[in-house]
Design brief:
Largest sheet: 7 strands, mixed
CATH class: Alpha Beta
Number of helices: 7
Number of domains: 1
Number of strands: 7
Distance between the termini: 20 Å
Order of helices and strands: HEHHHEEEHEHEEH
Radius of gyration: 16 Å
Shape: globular
Strand order of the largest sheet: 1-2-3-4-5-7-6
CATH topology: Aminopeptidase
Helix content: 25-40%
CATH architecture: 3-Layer(aba) Sandwich
Length: 202
Protein backbone atom coordinates (compact mmCIF):
# COMPACT_ATOMS: atom_id res chain seq x y z
CA UNK A 1 0.00 0.00 0.00
CA UNK A 2 1.47 3.41 -0.95
CA UNK A 3 2.88 5.24 2.03
CA UNK A 4 1.04 8.41 1.06
CA UNK A 5 -2.30 6.66 1.60
CA UNK A 6 -1.21 5.17 4.92
CA UNK A 7 -0.23 8.63 6.10
CA UNK A 8 -3.75 9.85 5.35
CA UNK A 9 -5.43 7.30 7.64
CA UNK A 10 -7.05 8.92 10.68
CA UNK A 11 -8.02 7.08 13.87
CA UNK A 12 -10.80 8.22 16.17
CA UNK A 13 -13.73 7.02 18.27
CA UNK A 14 -17.09 6.63 16.60
CA UNK A 15 -20.11 8.73 17.51
CA UNK A 16 -23.78 7.87 16.82
CA UNK A 17 -23.55 10.06 13.73
CA UNK A 18 -20.94 7.64 12.35
CA UNK A 19 -23.55 4.90 11.96
CA UNK A 20 -23.63 5.15 8.13
CA UNK A 21 -19.83 4.84 7.93
CA UNK A 22 -19.76 1.86 10.32
CA UNK A 23 -22.55 0.10 8.42
CA UNK A 24 -20.83 0.73 5.07
CA UNK A 25 -17.59 -0.70 6.48
CA UNK A 26 -19.28 -3.91 7.61
CA UNK A 27 -21.12 -4.30 4.31
CA UNK A 28 -17.82 -3.88 2.44
CA UNK A 29 -16.36 -6.97 4.14
CA UNK A 30 -16.09 -9.98 1.83
CA UNK A 31 -17.80 -13.28 2.81
CA UNK A 32 -14.65 -14.79 4.35
CA UNK A 33 -14.00 -11.61 6.35
CA UNK A 34 -17.58 -11.64 7.60
CA UNK A 35 -17.25 -15.24 8.74
CA UNK A 36 -13.95 -14.48 10.46
CA UNK A 37 -15.43 -11.43 12.20
CA UNK A 38 -18.73 -12.95 13.37
CA UNK A 39 -17.92 -16.67 13.41
CA UNK A 40 -20.67 -17.39 10.89
CA UNK A 41 -22.01 -16.37 7.52
CA UNK A 42 -23.41 -12.85 7.88
CA UNK A 43 -25.77 -11.44 5.24
CA UNK A 44 -26.38 -7.75 4.59
CA UNK A 45 -29.53 -7.65 6.73
CA UNK A 46 -27.67 -9.03 9.76
CA UNK A 47 -24.86 -6.51 9.31
CA UNK A 48 -27.26 -3.59 8.97
CA UNK A 49 -29.07 -4.61 12.16
CA UNK A 50 -25.79 -5.20 13.96
CA UNK A 51 -24.45 -1.78 13.00
CA UNK A 52 -27.61 -0.08 14.27
CA UNK A 53 -27.54 -1.99 17.56
CA UNK A 54 -23.81 -1.70 18.07
CA UNK A 55 -23.52 2.07 17.60
CA UNK A 56 -26.13 2.71 20.31
CA UNK A 57 -24.86 0.29 22.99
CA UNK A 58 -22.44 1.04 25.79
CA UNK A 59 -19.41 0.32 23.65
CA UNK A 60 -16.39 2.25 22.51
CA UNK A 61 -15.59 1.78 18.83
CA UNK A 62 -12.37 3.05 17.31
CA UNK A 63 -12.41 3.56 13.56
CA UNK A 64 -9.69 3.84 10.94
CA UNK A 65 -10.70 6.33 8.23
CA UNK A 66 -9.25 7.06 4.83
CA UNK A 67 -10.75 10.45 4.07
CA UNK A 68 -14.44 9.86 4.86
CA UNK A 69 -14.41 6.10 4.30
CA UNK A 70 -14.10 3.76 7.25
CA UNK A 71 -11.73 0.87 6.48
CA UNK A 72 -11.23 -0.65 9.93
CA UNK A 73 -12.96 -0.89 13.31
CA UNK A 74 -12.17 -2.08 16.83
CA UNK A 75 -14.96 -2.59 19.36
CA UNK A 76 -14.57 -2.57 23.16
CA UNK A 77 -17.61 -3.80 25.07
CA UNK A 78 -18.09 -4.49 28.82
CA UNK A 79 -19.02 -8.03 29.85
CA UNK A 80 -21.32 -8.70 32.78
CA UNK A 81 -22.58 -6.36 35.46
CA UNK A 82 -21.94 -2.70 36.23
CA UNK A 83 -18.31 -1.92 37.08
CA UNK A 84 -17.18 -5.20 35.56
CA UNK A 85 -13.44 -5.66 35.15
CA UNK A 86 -13.84 -7.69 31.95
CA UNK A 87 -14.59 -6.66 28.39
CA UNK A 88 -14.73 -8.12 24.88
CA UNK A 89 -12.79 -6.72 21.95
CA UNK A 90 -13.38 -7.37 18.26
CA UNK A 91 -11.76 -6.16 15.04
CA UNK A 92 -12.51 -5.86 11.36
CA UNK A 93 -10.25 -4.49 8.62
CA UNK A 94 -11.07 -4.50 4.93
CA UNK A 95 -9.05 -7.06 2.97
CA UNK A 96 -7.12 -4.55 0.87
CA UNK A 97 -5.86 -2.80 4.02
CA UNK A 98 -4.56 -5.72 6.04
CA UNK A 99 -0.93 -6.35 6.99
CA UNK A 100 -0.03 -2.65 6.92
CA UNK A 101 -0.31 -1.76 10.61
CA UNK A 102 -3.98 -0.75 10.87
CA UNK A 103 -4.91 -3.65 13.13
CA UNK A 104 -1.95 -2.92 15.40
CA UNK A 105 -2.89 0.76 15.66
CA UNK A 106 -6.51 -0.09 16.45
CA UNK A 107 -5.45 -2.68 19.03
CA UNK A 108 -3.19 -0.17 20.80
CA UNK A 109 -5.93 2.44 21.01
CA UNK A 110 -8.48 -0.11 22.20
CA UNK A 111 -6.10 -1.40 24.87
CA UNK A 112 -5.52 2.16 26.08
CA UNK A 113 -9.27 2.82 26.24
CA UNK A 114 -9.67 -0.40 28.24
CA UNK A 115 -6.99 0.51 30.80
CA UNK A 116 -8.41 4.02 31.18
CA UNK A 117 -11.79 2.52 32.08
CA UNK A 118 -10.27 0.05 34.56
CA UNK A 119 -10.89 -3.10 32.56
CA UNK A 120 -8.40 -5.77 33.59
CA UNK A 121 -9.11 -8.76 31.39
CA UNK A 122 -9.97 -8.51 27.71
CA UNK A 123 -11.37 -11.39 25.66
CA UNK A 124 -10.90 -11.64 21.91
CA UNK A 125 -12.40 -14.56 19.98
CA UNK A 126 -11.40 -15.63 16.49
CA UNK A 127 -11.52 -18.74 14.36
CA UNK A 128 -8.68 -21.17 14.90
CA UNK A 129 -7.28 -20.64 11.38
CA UNK A 130 -7.23 -16.83 11.71
CA UNK A 131 -3.45 -16.63 12.03
CA UNK A 132 -3.17 -12.82 11.55
CA UNK A 133 -5.42 -12.09 14.52
CA UNK A 134 -3.65 -14.69 16.65
CA UNK A 135 -0.35 -13.02 15.78
CA UNK A 136 -1.79 -9.60 16.64
CA UNK A 137 -2.95 -10.87 20.02
CA UNK A 138 0.49 -12.32 20.77
CA UNK A 139 2.09 -8.99 19.83
CA UNK A 140 0.30 -7.51 22.83
CA UNK A 141 1.33 -10.35 25.16
CA UNK A 142 -2.00 -12.15 24.97
CA UNK A 143 -2.57 -15.63 26.32
CA UNK A 144 -4.08 -17.84 23.59
CA UNK A 145 -6.56 -20.51 24.66
CA UNK A 146 -8.15 -22.81 22.08
CA UNK A 147 -11.73 -23.96 22.63
CA UNK A 148 -13.13 -26.24 19.92
CA UNK A 149 -12.82 -24.33 16.61
CA UNK A 150 -12.15 -20.97 18.23
CA UNK A 151 -9.12 -19.22 19.63
CA UNK A 152 -9.74 -17.10 22.71
CA UNK A 153 -7.14 -14.46 23.54
CA UNK A 154 -7.00 -13.13 27.09
CA UNK A 155 -5.21 -9.80 27.32
CA UNK A 156 -4.26 -8.37 30.69
CA UNK A 157 -4.74 -4.59 30.53
CA UNK A 158 -2.38 -2.46 32.65
CA UNK A 159 -3.71 0.07 35.16
CA UNK A 160 -4.54 3.53 33.91
CA UNK A 161 -2.15 6.39 34.54
CA UNK A 162 -2.28 10.15 34.15
CA UNK A 163 -0.22 9.73 30.98
CA UNK A 164 -2.62 7.19 29.44
CA UNK A 165 -5.60 9.40 30.30
CA UNK A 166 -3.96 12.47 28.81
CA UNK A 167 -2.97 10.66 25.63
CA UNK A 168 -6.53 9.54 25.04
CA UNK A 169 -7.84 13.02 25.80
CA UNK A 170 -5.35 14.54 23.35
CA UNK A 171 -6.44 12.12 20.62
CA UNK A 172 -10.08 12.97 21.31
CA UNK A 173 -9.32 16.69 21.21
CA UNK A 174 -7.54 16.25 17.89
CA UNK A 175 -10.65 14.51 16.50
CA UNK A 176 -12.77 17.35 17.80
CA UNK A 177 -10.59 19.95 16.12
CA UNK A 178 -11.08 18.03 12.87
CA UNK A 179 -14.84 18.47 13.18
CA UNK A 180 -15.67 15.34 15.20
CA UNK A 181 -17.00 15.23 18.74
CA UNK A 182 -15.22 13.62 21.68
CA UNK A 183 -16.38 12.08 24.93
CA UNK A 184 -13.90 12.80 27.74
CA UNK A 185 -16.72 12.22 30.24
CA UNK A 186 -16.85 8.53 29.26
CA UNK A 187 -13.53 8.02 30.99
CA UNK A 188 -15.24 8.79 34.29
CA UNK A 189 -18.95 7.97 34.04
CA UNK A 190 -20.08 4.56 35.41
CA UNK A 191 -20.57 1.88 32.81
CA UNK A 192 -24.05 0.53 32.25
CA UNK A 193 -24.63 -3.22 31.88
CA UNK A 194 -25.61 -4.35 28.41
CA UNK A 195 -26.50 -7.65 26.78
CA UNK A 196 -23.58 -9.30 25.07
CA UNK A 197 -23.98 -9.37 21.27
CA UNK A 198 -22.86 -12.22 19.08
CA UNK A 199 -19.48 -11.19 17.73
CA UNK A 200 -16.17 -12.52 16.65
CA UNK A 201 -12.92 -11.09 15.37
CA UNK A 202 -11.87 -10.72 11.79
Amino acid sequence: MPKTELDRIAYRKLLPTDHPAFEAHLLALDPESRRARFGMAANDTFLEQYATRCITLNAIIHGAFLDNRMIGAAELRPLGELFTAEAEIAFSVEADWRNCGIGTALFARTLRSARNRSFVRLYMSCLRHNAPMRALARKFAAEILVELDESVALVEAPRRTIISLLREAIDDAAARSSGHGWEWSRLWLPRRPVARPVSRVG
